[in-house]
Amino acid sequence: MDLQSSIAVLKGLGPKSAEKFQKLNIYTIEDLLLYYPFRYEDFKDKSVFELADGEKAVISGTVVTPANVQYYGHKRNRLSFKMKQGEAVISVSFFNQPYLQEKVTVGSRLAVFGKWDALKSAVTGMKILVQASDDLQPVYRLGQGVTQNALVKAVKAAFAVGAHQWLPENLPQVLLDKYRLLGRSQATAAMHFPKDLSQYRQALRRIKFEELFYFQMQLQLLKAANKTEKSGLAVNYNQEAVRQKISQLPFSLTASQKNSLNDILTDMRSGRHMNRLLQGDVGSGKTIIASLAMYATYTAGFQSALMVPTEILAEQHYESLSALFPDLSIAILTSGMKAPVRRTVLSAIASGSVNMIVGTHALIQEGVDYHRLGLVITDEQHRFGVRQRRLFREKGSNPDVLMMTATPIPRTLAITTFGEMDVSTITELPAGRRPILTRWIKHEELENVFSWMKSELKKGAQAYVISPLIEESESLDLKNATDLYEELSAYFAAEAKVALLHGRLKNEEKEAIMQDFKSKRLQILVATTVVEVGVNVPDATIMLIMDADRFGLSQLHQLRGRVGRGSKQSYAVLVANPKTESGKERMKAMTQTTDGFLLAEADLKLRGSGEIFGTRQSGLPEFQVADVIEDFNILEEARRVAALIVSDSHWQQDERWQVIVPNLNQNDSFD
């Protein structure tokens, strides 16, 4: 047994159980060890007199009344009983967990984990514990068929055989000493089962540095390779043909669109390898600039390829390119294609009979050979790892590289995250686009919003309704997508057809639902953030986001950008009762501006060290535990150290990287 052994060899698991874990990309013991919790529950027993209203805690007491189960509605029920803690009598309720009744007997001692309501002297239970504990209990992200208990058991089984001690140290001793970092095996153990908050923070600090350091090492190597390359391709495009194509557009380019296009075309013609980031707010018109760059590449006799993160988005780009350039041969390549179709497309790409190719990560897989690749573009580039981006640019003979993002990035963050990449920014919205009106309301006002939506739907509007959850979890106070779908289906039965879209659907199902929404066969789309990057639907003018305070500003802005794609007035309604000042500030910021760059700067100010027991908001790029906004200090130090290592010609020969010692100031720190 070793790190690469299947988890099926662990005690308590087998081939069938191991197969379920594959949905979480956990195949080996090493995968399991490196699958970290995203938060923890504090299961220490507390007195109700110490609790704040709304606080989640473990409350122990003696059961004083029998458990009663009351059924109401479709598949809904409430289990209730009372227990006594000292002199306090507490009402306990569990929703949709009738099977817990057998655990509740009068006179027995119980430890209930739940949410405290000080006004009612009641707790809404989430789980019944065998006993209270002084430990922090890990909470993992789950997949279909894998429960929290199963994951915790599997991780404990790996620790029982000492598997965490098999992990090789992947940071040089000089960095461990300098930054006072835990060793890898010790940090991994503390990430899963910390003794206390202090040990967890030490482990998190180490793992974050490790993630950001290796990310920066890859970036610095990529930059070093760019500098040593003698030249790029000289894409001598037909200027007159490009001018004519621009003049045929049904709209005029904005000044910043023209400037960005000029930056790109100048790079392409120069013969110097282009490595440019095109950033612009949601709906600012980056796609047309990328399309014109692809057209310029075609006029020079080269192929161009555009890589996007989802099949839905690939289909959208394929359709828009086909409409824009009806005389050109354009292909789409995705992982979900049937083998005969895929073979035909691959043959066309290799022979050069295709001018432009759009696809997902399938574009960089083995077996994809380009005829004469001149330009590669990645859209929403932060969703692709550095390795994926490198593989893409290695296709062909050093093609020019353009990366696009609709996530506005503050300049200080862009410099550290994307280094010496040239940056072009589109700062204006296209003519005819109206700013999206954004309102923040409390849950109690939702009925008024539904009434207003009815009148808008009668005028031909379509609406997105976003929920942060897919199904019931311990967060019972959140409206989940399934319940929301049922509620809206009943409420709008006469006015609208409603559909549910979430990440667990198969790609074909997602695409079918989005196509129905786009063609107006559906009027309301209840969805998780799977629509954050999705198809353009001009008649979708309402974006209703439930529990909006659970999202970061960047994500809220991306979601808001799904509407306002046409000339009609669009609206974003944020439904939230935030309990923290940060949550309230985020809601206010969203209603005060639609400028993504201002919001990005606000995000940097609002996002502090993070809430260990709260939901972690992902940053750009995406890591398992690190966040480039929240952990900017660590990211900047990791960049500095990685740059020192890569710039030293001897670093590859010194496996412990001791060469960097003379260059490190002992006062440097990221704390």
UniProtKB/TrEMBL annotation:
Keyword Isomerase: yes
GO BP annotation list: DNA recombination; DNA repair
Keyword ATP-binding: yes
Documented EC number(s): 5.6.2.4
Top-level class of the enzyme under EC nomenclature: isomerase
CDD domains named in the record: DEXHc_RecG, RecG_wedge_OBF, SF2_C_RecG
PROSITE patterns: HELICASE_ATP_BIND_1, HELICASE_CTER
Keywords assigned by UniProt, alphabetized: ATP-binding, DNA damage, DNA recombination, DNA repair, DNA-binding, Helicase, Hydrolase, Isomerase, Nucleotide-binding
Family matches, as SUPFAM superfamilies: Nucleic acid-binding proteins, P-loop containing nucleoside triphosphate hydrolases
Top-level taxon: Bacteria
Domain (Helicase ATP-binding): residue spans on this chain: 267-426
GO MF, any single term: ATP binding
Residue ranges of the TM segments: none
Catalytic activity, as annotated: Couples ATP hydrolysis with the unwinding of duplex DNA by translocating in the 3'-5' direction; ATP + H2O = ADP + phosphate + H(+)
Helicase C-terminal domain ranges (all copies): 445-610
Function description: Plays a critical role in recombination and DNA repair. Helps process Holliday junction intermediates to mature products by catalyzing branch migration. Has replication fork regression activity, unwinds stalled or blocked replication forks to make a HJ that can be resolved. Has a DNA unwinding activity characteristic of a DNA helicase with 3'-5' polarity.
Family indicated by similarity: Belongs to the helicase family. RecG subfamily.
Alphabetized NCBIfam families for the sequence: PRK10917.1-3, PRK10917.2-2, recG
Protein name per UniProt: ATP-dependent DNA helicase RecG
The organism of origin for this protein: Streptococcus pantholopis
